[in-house]
Amino acid sequence: MSIFEYNGSALVAMVGKNCFAIASDRRLGVQLQTIATDFQRISKIHDRLFFGLSGLATDAQTLYQRLVFRHKLYQLREERDMKPETFANLVSALLYEKRFGPYFCQPVIAGLGDEDKPFICTMDSIGAKELAKDFVVAGTASESLYGACESMFKEDMEPEELFETVSQALLSSVDRDCLSGWGGHVYVVTPTEVKERILKGRMD
């Protein structure tokens, strides 16, 4: 078993019309044993920028603390919030710095940039970025997420339709992966508000 599959995870970010959604499952396991059913994989940097970490849970928590610290330093120095592209570069540099003993994490970054243009990207454990204009996925359920998102994605979705699409993609995908599941956690972010919803999924 790969160390990336040790805790199990499913993460997806998808763009809509001047909005984006980021969603994850809620299971924390040790291989096939479930430890928690309310694990938080998605974190807020500020109202227009969110990121999720799939992979080894302990590394994800360490990386989260380091990224929040770096963003607070940026806010103090620059007196403004970080743009999503800048934050993606920060995450990439932080991961590449540790390339000889990497964090076993695959980040998913989603934010609203200039003129409310959605930005999403993912990267591997040493910070090689993968930019996309539609959706990005990560975690043990990524193969089934690719298929579900590919078939359900439409361009310029409104926030409610985007929520429905990303939720259906997530729930149908985690049913095909025994290492992730136990419901979902979805954020839909528009220029004016952040909607957070908990999904109930199969509990087996």
UniProtKB/TrEMBL annotation:
One of its GO terms (cellular component) is nucleus. It is found in: Cytoplasm; Nucleus. Signal peptide: none annotated. CDD domains: proteasome_beta_type_3. Its main location: cytoplasm. The keyword Cytoplasm applies. GO terms for biological process: proteasome-mediated ubiquitin-dependent protein catabolic process. Pfam families: Proteasome. Keywords: Cytoplasm, Nucleus, Proteasome. SUPFAM superfamilies: N-terminal nucleophile aminohydrolases (Ntn hydrolases) (SSF56235). Non-catalytic component of the proteasome, a multicatalytic proteinase complex which is characterized by its ability to cleave peptides with Arg, Phe, Tyr, Leu, and Glu adjacent to the leaving group at neutral or slightly basic pH. The proteasome has an ATP-dependent proteolytic activity. Belongs to the peptidase T1B family. Component of the 20S core complex of the 26S proteasome. The 26S proteasome is composed of a core protease (CP), known as the 20S proteasome, capped at one or both ends by the 19S regulatory particle (RP/PA700). The 20S proteasome core is composed of 28 subunits that are arranged in four stacked rings, resulting in a barrel-shaped structure. The two end rings are each formed by seven alpha subunits, and the two central rings are each formed by seven beta subunits. The catalytic chamber with the active sites is on the inside of the barrel. This is Proteasome subunit beta. It comes from Durio zibethinus (Durian). The gene is LOC111298353.
